[in-house]
Design brief:
Elements lengths: L1 E10 L2 E6 L10 E2 L2 E3 L6 H13 L2 E14 L4 E13 L9 E5 L14 H11 L4
Parallel strand pairs: 1-6
Antiparallel strand pairs: 1-2, 1-4, 2-3, 2-7, 5-6
Length: 131
């Protein structure tokens, strides 16, 4: 099982989603920014590193929003999604095909990685358009 971390970053009533590169596994699907936890890193350190590498931003990592275990045909991931805010920088499309800010009501307009679906259901339930 691979440990993966991701960030739920809000800006007002919208949260950030990123579109995976076409040439990667699950290419062009939408996801929360993040990646694999490397040996010797805490989950928080991994998330800060991944966001620096992928978006050129520095995160302030908060509490855990949700954890999910998902089995893909090629890999099983344990995904920990953290609430986070951008402490420094403006998101750049270094790694991703696209970056967007959407409201919870816009979730159905995007095709997400299957590991994120349980999280998205909770977000629609918890936030709807109430944020």
């Amino acid at each position: 099982m691979i440990e993966v971390v991701a960030a739920l970053i809000w800006e007002g009533d919208r949260f950030m989603i990123c579109q995976r590169p076409a040439n990667k596994a699950r290419g062009l699907l939408w996801e929360f920014v993040g990646g694999k936890v490397e040996p010797g890193e805490t989950k928080e350190q991994a998330l800060i590193r991944e966001c620096r590498e992928e978006l050129a931003i520095t995160l302030s990592v908060g509490n855990v929003f949700m954890e999910v275990v998902h089995k893909y045909p090629d890999v099983t991931v344990h995904l920990t999604l953290f609430n986070a805010t951008i402490a420094e920088g403006i998101p750049q499309k270094i790694e991703h095909n696209d970056v967007r800010w959407i409201t919870p009501s816009e979730i159905p307009n995007h095709t997400f990685c299957p590991a994120d679906e349980e999280i998205l259901v909770r977000m629609i339930h918890d936030y709807g358009d109430k944020r």
